[in-house]
Amino acid sequence: MGDIRMKRFGKQSFQTQLIVCLLGCLLFSVVIIAACLGLNFREAERSNHSYIERLNEQWAMELEFMTAGIDKMRFLHLADTEAGRIIADEGETRSQEQYSENEAYMSRILDVLCTINSDVLRITVETGTGKVYGNYVEDSAASVALAKHHMLYEKRDYKNEMAVTDVYEGDINLVPYFLLTFCYPLYAVSEEESLGTIYIDMDFGAMKERFDAVDKQSGWSSYILNENGLIYGSDAALGASIGAEEKKKIEELAHSQTGAGSLTLGNRDYLIHVKYMEGLDWYLVQCVQKSIFMIDQMRGVYFMAVWVVIFLGGLICAGILLMKKISAPIGEMSRVMNQAATRENKELKYMEGWEEYPEEIREIVQGYNGMIDRIRKNIIQEYANELYQKKTELQMLQYQINPHFLYNSLDSINWLVRKGDMEKATDTISALTAFFRIGLSKGRDMITVREEVEHVRSYLVIQKMRYENQFEYAFYVDPETE
Q1: DSSP 183
Q2: DSSP code of 320?
Q3: Which of 41, 129, 227, 237 is the most exposed place for a label (fewest CB within 10 A)?
Q4: Does residue 373 carry a pLDDT above 60?
Q5: At what angle do helices 422-439 and 449-466 cross, to 10 degrees?
Q6: Residue pair 271/288 in contact by the 8 Å Cβ criterion
Q7: CB under 8 Å to 226, separation ≥6 — which residues?
Q8: Residue 181's closest CA among 211, 155, 148, 212?
């Protein structure tokens, strides 16, 4: 079927074939452009996933760095002997003066720890006997009560327990802050029960400022969620659209192998990457709007595709105009040549008006008109050659019936008869007969190879008889060629 269709297509006019080819090129180019767009879209999507994954990793590393120093504070009572004695308390009755000294000492050492870690605003220690020490003495008890009230997440493990609050508002020396409190039990090396609890208040507002300082392009946003919902969003309006269903999808992605996926927020599709911070029970979410990165990162590809389509469209229009300019003289040439081939007219015609044709067509027409000149000359030459051929045939007959050859042959036969060698005489006569029978055949312009070989063999038989033992001959003829 394919071959039949190709043959039918090949029989169509030149104009039809050219239009089909141009449209095929346009269709093929559109398919290639679509494939390139698809590949570029996938590559852009992969690149954006990779970028937001790296951004999430940087956030996670920064949070881990901020909390790494906090985790070491649980060993305060082991690193400082005096602080350990005060926290242990050992149930001894102490005077008010001694308690004031202990409070002053703990305030100094806790203040030093706050100075070392700039993200920590306040540290409070509550002993097992209920005493409270802090670097801000006047509000230490209230801060512990507030932290306990906002406690959200607990991780229990042997002597590695910890708890984290939700982000909440609190005052330190009458200054309002957004706080995030870490709670660690304090264990002695050989004791199974804790000596007390240390509360470390971090400045979440400072953390938020760091997150906000990250330069993001249009369509990019970041969020932090915990069990209670959103605690940070670079786009507050979009963050408000994260509901229970979206949070469930985020949790599923966080525990997937890659953490990458897509999510619909505010009726827009986003590529997202989620990372779970187990120590904080936080979900770090990075988002990029699909339409934004498609427009921004693939603008060059779209621009190129549009120009390619425009170029191909212009090429097709130019091809059709050129085709009309070419097909008209080609049609005229075809008509004239067909008359020459079928000899509808006794006189072969020249093509006229070819000066206005394109250069290539003019060259073809000149060649055609020159061919007509040569054909006319060849017709005349053909008549002359026919006459010459007749004359040559007559001459060949004369050469073949050479009297001298015939006389010598007959004289040789006569000598053989007198000698009594009748067998050779008979063979020579037969050869002479065959030689003249083929050489004097009339009414034929061609003979077969077999007849020509017989003609030559007859001649050689006669010559062999006359010049005995002076030469030898042999014939090698393929039977298929005879």
Answers
A1: E
A2: H
A3: 237
A4: yes
A5: 140
A6: yes
A7: 152, 153, 166, 280, 281, 282, 283
A8: 148
